[in-house]
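for the recovery benchmark. tokens below, seq after
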């Protein structure tokens, strides 16, 4: 029977949509399972075949869990704020909302074609006001919270105010920007502005001057992961380090909990390692050094206070505020030039560049508090303001980077850890040796010396032992239009939150999407964007009088804001009273399976864990962590094609002749190749772009053969394969099976369209098992033991594979089972019905059609998954090979129930054996049960 995949797939996709087959119930009686894909950003290019890989895997798992009787939440939505739509708006004037809507329509069309079992009724978009109302609400909650280190959680800011009223800062143990000291009386006497300023020091969402990655061309601040080699990832524009007033999120308060929480998660180890490194916990001491001739002190954090006697110079971050104060007139020009050069590098670039050494001398000296020696103070880009204190004490004998710096600037290198190595030539870093040249630390090992020096530092009153984290607070403002407005207005220069009744604060219309002439963010162009405090509403900006009408915050939230909590909104997406009803968030709890790319390790996956922990602290949800199990799917790589242009000409030489010419390899669109071959359609190539219209070709055997290479699939390499084309030719079920068949989910693997024919052939074979010619033919006759064995072998393998995410080996097992059933001409209902259920998570359309033909009215989706019966896998008879003196002589079929002794007796009485023995008695008989009989004569 002809397998018409196009008709079948259209029919069932319409059925699922009309019947809302995958709509999730909030019935909390059933056990739940929450399967989620990382939030997609709807780009203008749409999907290529690499994108659905993770979606297919999660969809298989979601369908399998439904078959097992779980209430499955498998939603979809769009992370729809983002730079690309805004850049397009700047270039064309088209509102980003229109571009985003078009892109989402295209995405959804493609996703539906692949047959995903998403609950489309729960779709969310971060750019919808009904969604970002709650993103703004979470921001307000963060603003009105502080982190109490004694209870180790976030608490309402009102409890901090109460504390200040009762005893000021006495005994306060809070996460803060600066350590403040005041009494209850001083607090009570402070003005409202001063009180607000003090509270900003503790709020979890706060405004402060911060060093940021500023991109003038894009007119915005960029996150570290949006910058590559000093340029913006989007557009390749120069990025500079700049100090600006910015909103920040106090994620640093959660560093220890974020570290400890990793131990409870089933995540790939490399991803956990990335977060651990990013958080960067280290234990040591905070030490204050006096600066000669200045009142200022330099405070450093060091993990090796035991080496303080070997500290011979100091290095400050170029952006450290002390630099301006302590730099001498003679050194000012050199220092200013160095600061300017450093501003062109991102912090990430500076951290990554471990080989190059550069710096500038400030002209000032610090005093070593233990040796009393003068220590020249330098600035260098390898010291970061955001880590520790923005200053290091350099111990060149025992730190590789300090050593290179000392060598370059001819500074003293003093050995303080015992070693036979020459520390003048190379640094020696060890915690296993003992201290030397270190006064009262001499002869002590690392642990004892560290404890004693910390005690001495504390006795001198110049510092204390402490734990430090590399992770810094997350910058939360972007000078962009297309993002969530921050629900803040300014009164007397102080930020105040809008009342929650005023949410959502909607994005206003603007005439242009660029910063204003005064340098304000694009929201500065809005005509209706001011807060009328008296009437509690947004009004025209020309009404601002700083008495009852005040300016609103002009920055928008960063791209990660909406994606930091979307997994919670899916639990209750239409609720206008709360972001998610507590009863529902308690039921759905953690995401049980989360699939997405490893590139989000230190962005989205950290921020969402932070917001989740915060919401738990404040009692809005019950679970500490958002994502229990996480899988990073690999990449599907493209097979790029190249033509070879002869230098200085318009001639293109075929691949195998190119070695005789000086050529330049140029990417060419893979759609210009003939069929699935490597041959270029030369006429199509000439018509592709105007600059190739007059191309001449040097052919081999009358053909132009392109070069091929496996690379990342991307539009710029012209190697993108559109899933729509694959669905058209091979069907969505073919695409789904093939993507799983390519190899293990976590590995990267090259795409090869030619490989689809094998999977498509399997689908046709599977289809025809249910037909006799063109007639649907399934028998109610009881299957044979052999038929049941094929089925139950498959059940055992597929259950193991799905639960271990080995989807590729399941597809191989399907092929083996269908081949075996075809060979024995099996058409029994008791085999073919469960077979359709087993294959349906992978190939749902064909299985729905067969299920319907088998006489079922309901969807196959909720049919119970077949249960393994091991009895069918037990062999009745064993075909024993009989070996005599190491050579196999014959085979004998015996009951599987026979003991080794009984097998021995039957074999010796066998006619063939008696002929071989010729009356002799064997010297040795070995029976390996169910395997082999060995006889030695």
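predicted aa per position
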């Amino acid at each position: 029977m002809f397998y018409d995949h196009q008709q079948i797939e259209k029919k069932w996709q319409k059925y699922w949509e009309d019947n809302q087959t995958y709509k999730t119930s909030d019935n909390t009686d059933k056990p739940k399972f929450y399967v989620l894909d990382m939030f997609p950003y709807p780009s203008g290019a749409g999907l290529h075949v690499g994108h659905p890989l993770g979606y297919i895997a999660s969809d298989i798992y979601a369908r399998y869990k439904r078959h097992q009787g779980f209430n499955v939440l498998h939603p979809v939505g769009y992370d729809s704020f983002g730079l690309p739509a805004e850049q397009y708006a700047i270039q064309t004037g088209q509102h980003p909302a229109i571009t985003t809507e078009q892109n989402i329509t295209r995405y959804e069309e493609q996703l539906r074609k692949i047959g995903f079992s998403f609950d489309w009724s729960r779709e969310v978009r971060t750019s919808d006001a009904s969604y970002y109302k709650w993103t703004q609400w979470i921001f307000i909650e963060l603003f009105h919270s502080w982190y109490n280190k004694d209870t180790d959680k976030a608490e309402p800011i009102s409890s901090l105010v109460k504390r200040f009223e009762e005893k000021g800062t006495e005994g306060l143990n809070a996460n803060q920007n600066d350590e403040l000291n005041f009494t209850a009386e001083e607090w009570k006497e402070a003005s409202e502005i001063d009180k607000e300023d003090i509270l900003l020091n503790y709020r979890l969402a706060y405004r402060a001057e911060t060093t940021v990655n500023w991109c003038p061309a894009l007119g915005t601040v960029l996150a570290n992961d949006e910058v590559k080699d000093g340029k913006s990832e989007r557009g390749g524009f120069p990025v500079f380090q700049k100090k600006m007033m910015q909103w920040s999120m106090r994620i640093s308060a959660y560093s220890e909990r974020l570290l400890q929480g990793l131990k409870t998660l089933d995540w790939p180890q490399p991803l956990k390692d990335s977060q651990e490194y990013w958080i960067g916990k280290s234990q040591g001491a905070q030490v204050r050094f006096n600066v000669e001739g200045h009142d200022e002190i330099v405070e450093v954090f060091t993990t090796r206070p035991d080496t303080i006697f070997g500290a011979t110079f100091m290095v400050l971050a170029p952006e450290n505020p002390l630099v301006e104060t302590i730099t001498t007139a003679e050194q000012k020009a050199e220092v200013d030039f160095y600061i300017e050069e450093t501003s062109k590098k991102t912090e990430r670039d500076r951290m990554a560049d471990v080989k190059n050494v550069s710096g500038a001398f400030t002209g000032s000296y610090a005093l070593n508090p233990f040796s009393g020696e003068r220590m020249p103070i330098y600035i260098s880009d390898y010291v970061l303001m955001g880590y520790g204190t923005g200053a290091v004490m350099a111990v060149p004998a025992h730190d590789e980077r300090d050593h290179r710096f000392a060598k370059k600037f001819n500074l003293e290198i003093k050995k303080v850890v015992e070693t036979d190595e020459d520390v003048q030539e190379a640094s020696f870093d060890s915690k296993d040796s003992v201290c030397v040249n270190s006064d009262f630390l001499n002869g002590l090992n690392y642990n004892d010396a560290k404890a004693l020096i910390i005690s001495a530092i504390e006795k001198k009153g110049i510092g204390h032992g402490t734990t430090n984290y590399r992770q810094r607070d997350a910058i939360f403002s972007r000078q962009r239009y297309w993002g969530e407005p921050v629900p803040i207005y300014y009164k007397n220069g102080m930020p105040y939150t809008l009342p929650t009744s005023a949410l959502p604060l909607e994005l206003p219309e603007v005439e242009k999407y660029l910063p204003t002439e005064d340098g304000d963010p694009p929201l500065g162009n809005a005509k209706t964007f001011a807060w009328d405090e008296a009437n509690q509403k947004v009004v025209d900006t020309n009404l601002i009088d700083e008495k009852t009408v005040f300016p609103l915050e002009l920055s928008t939230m960063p791209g990660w804001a909406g994606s930091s909590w979307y997994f919670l909104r899916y639990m209750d997406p239409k609720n206008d009273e709360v972001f998610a009803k507590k009863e529902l968030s308690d039921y759905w709890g953690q995401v049980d399976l989360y699939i997405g790319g490893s590139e989000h390790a230190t962005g989205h996956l950290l921020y969402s864990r932070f917001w989740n922990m915060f919401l738990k602290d404040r009692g809005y949800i019950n679970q500490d962590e958002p994502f229990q199990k996480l899988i990073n799917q690999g990449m599907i790589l493209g097979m790029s094609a190249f033509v070879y242009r002869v230098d200085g000409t318009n001639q293109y030489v075929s691949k195998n002749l190119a070695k005789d010419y000086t050529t330049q390899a140029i990417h060419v669109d893979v759609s210009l190749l003939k069929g699935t071959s490597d041959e270029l359609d030369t006429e199509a190539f000439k018509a592709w772009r105007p600059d190739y219209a007059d191309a001449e070709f040097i052919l081999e055997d009358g053909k132009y053969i392109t070069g091929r290479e496996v690379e990342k699939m991307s539009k710029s390499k012209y190697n993108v394969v559109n899933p729509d084309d694959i669905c058209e030719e091979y069907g969505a079920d073919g695409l789904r099976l093939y993507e799983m068949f390519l190899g293990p989910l976590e590995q990267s693997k090259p795409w090869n369209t030619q490989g689809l024919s094998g999977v498509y052939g399997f689908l046709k074979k599977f289809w025809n098992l249910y037909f006799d010619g063109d007639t649907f033919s399934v028998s109610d006759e009881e299957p044979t033991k052999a038929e049941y064995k094929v089925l139950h072998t498959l059940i055992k393998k597929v259950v193991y594979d799905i639960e271990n995410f080995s989807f590729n080996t399941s597809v191989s097992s399907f092929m083996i089972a269908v081949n075996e059933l075809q060979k024995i001409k099996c058409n029994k209902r008791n085999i073919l019905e469960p077979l359709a259920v087993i294959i349906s998570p992978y190939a749902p359309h064909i299985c729905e059609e067969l299920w319907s033909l088998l006489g079922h009215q309901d969807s196959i989706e909720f049919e119970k998954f077949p249960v393994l019966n091991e009895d069918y896998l037990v062999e009745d008879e064993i075909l024993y090979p009989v070996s005599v003196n190491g050579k196999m002589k014959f085979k004998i079929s015996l009951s599987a129930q026979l003991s080794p002794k009984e097998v021995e007796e039957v074999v010796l009485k066998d006619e063939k054996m008696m002929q071989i023995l010729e009356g002799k008695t064997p010297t040795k008989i070995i029976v390996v049960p169910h395997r082999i009989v060995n006889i030695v004569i």
